[in-house]
Amino acid sequence: xxxxxxxxxxxxxxxxxxxxxxxxSGELETALKALIGKGTRNIxxxxxxxxxxxxxxxxxxxxxxxxxxxAGGEVVIAQPSDRVRETLELAGLDVLFPSHxxxxxAVASF
Length: 110
Fold this sequence. Notes:
alpha/beta, Transcription Regulator spoIIAA, five-stranded mixed sheet, 4 helices
């Protein structure tokens, strides 16, 4: 898994590629907590290059959403791959994470 973060005025975009599973979700959690810790309130998860999202990855997404909501922020998804979209739908989490067709649209949603 690879993580790249780009910060804009409205939100930070966290681009993730590869597998988000029990072996890699801790790295994603650390990156997201670091952003929240330094005051970021809106996060866009670009999941276009994620080919597998496990329950560990879903847990990281849900805990990040909770932390941001408590701080008055939000997390949205940009360009989810078909596999990610299906995983979110099967877990019933698609309603918690607004999805946008592009990174630009996701950032503009804030």
